[in-house]
Amino acid sequence: MDDLNLGAVTYGDPVSAGENLDATAAAVTASSLAELSWVDDGGGPRVLGVVVLLRQNRPAVAFTYADEALARAVAAAGSVTLSLTEPRSTGADFRPLLARGRPLLVEDPDGDLYAADLLLQELRRYPPSRVYVDSPLLQRENWWYLPRLVVELDVQAVEPLRARESADDQLLVVAGGDGLDVHVARTPAAGRGRLALEVDGAPPSGPAVLFSQDASFPDLENWSQWSYRGAWDGAVFTVQEAPAAVGLGPPLGLRQRWRRHRDLERRCVAALSKRGGR
Asked: How confident is the model at residue 278 (pLDDT cuts 50, 70, 90)?
C-alpha cells in the first residue's frame, strides 16, 4: 500500500497537535460523517458515528440532552479518538485522519453556546437540523433542541488514516494497554463468527469493535450505524455480539419522521426537566 501522507508524515506516525492544528481544523470543517471512539467502563471499545463541528479551533460534538448519558460517558473517558474516514460529501480541504486527545465537557443547558458557536455549522453540515432550528420561529418552537452537552477534543496527536472506499471497508477499533488502536479494515469474504480482515497497520490483540455507518448523501435524512463487538487476535476478528441489522434502511415515511421528531423532543424535555429547565 502506498504511504498515506498528512504533511510529510507517513501512515501511523503520530504528529504533535501544534504542527497540524490548522490542517486538522480544516479537515474537520470539510468532513461529512466521522467516528468517535473511546473505552467504556468495562474496558471495551465503543464507537459512535458523529457529525463533528469546530469550536475555538477544537473538534467538538454537540449532543442534545436526549443523549445526555452518552455525552457524559464520552467525556468521562481518559482519552478519545476522532477518525475522519468518510470521503463522500466532503470539501476540498478534507483529509482522512485520526486525532487523539482528551475530551472536555461544556454544559450548555440554555443553548447559548450552541446558538453562538455551532448552530450555523450544524445547519450547513447536518441538513436534518434545519427542520428544528432553521429560523427564529423554529428555534422558539423547538427550544429543547438548542441546549447541548458539547464534548470538545483537546487534540494531542494526529495520524494519517486511509479513507473507507467501499461498503467492505469498516473501522476496526481495538482496546489495549496503550489506549485505542484504530484502523481501516476490509472483510474480503463473508463470515459469521470469525472474520478474516485485511487491516492497514498491525493492531495488537484485544477487545475490539468492527464499526460501519452509511447515510443518504447529501441530505443525511437516513443515517444508519452498526457495530460488531468481539475480540481481535492479530489476524481474525471473533464476533461475540452482532448487530440486529446492517446497512442503510429504506427512506423514512412521513409518519416515521413525525415519530422521530416527537421522540427526540420527549427525551430532550425529560432530561432538561430533571435539571429544573423549562
From this structure: low
On whether residue 260 sits in a domain, the answer given is yes
Q: Nine-digit cell at 240?
A: 461475540
Q: Which domain holds residue 59?
A: 15-274
Domains in the chain: how many in total?
1
Q: Is the predicted pLDDT of residue 62 greater than 90, yes or no? A: yes
What CATH code is carried by the domain that includes residue 252? 2.30.110.10
The amino acid occupying position 87 is: P
Give the residue among 142, 15, 158, 154 at the shortest CA–CA distance from 78.
154
Residue 94's contacts (CB-CB under 8 Å, 6 or more residues apart) are 27, 30, 31, 84, 87
Position 180 in a domain:
yes
pTM value is 0.89
Pairing of strands 58-64, 97-108: unpaired
What is the DSSP code string of 58-115?
EEEEEEEGGGHHHHHHHHHSS-EEEEE---TT--TT---EEEEEEEEEEEETTSHHII
The answer to whether residue 102 is domain-embedded is yes
- Residues 251 and 237: their CA atoms lie apart, in Å, by 32
Distance CA 88, CA 33 (A): 9
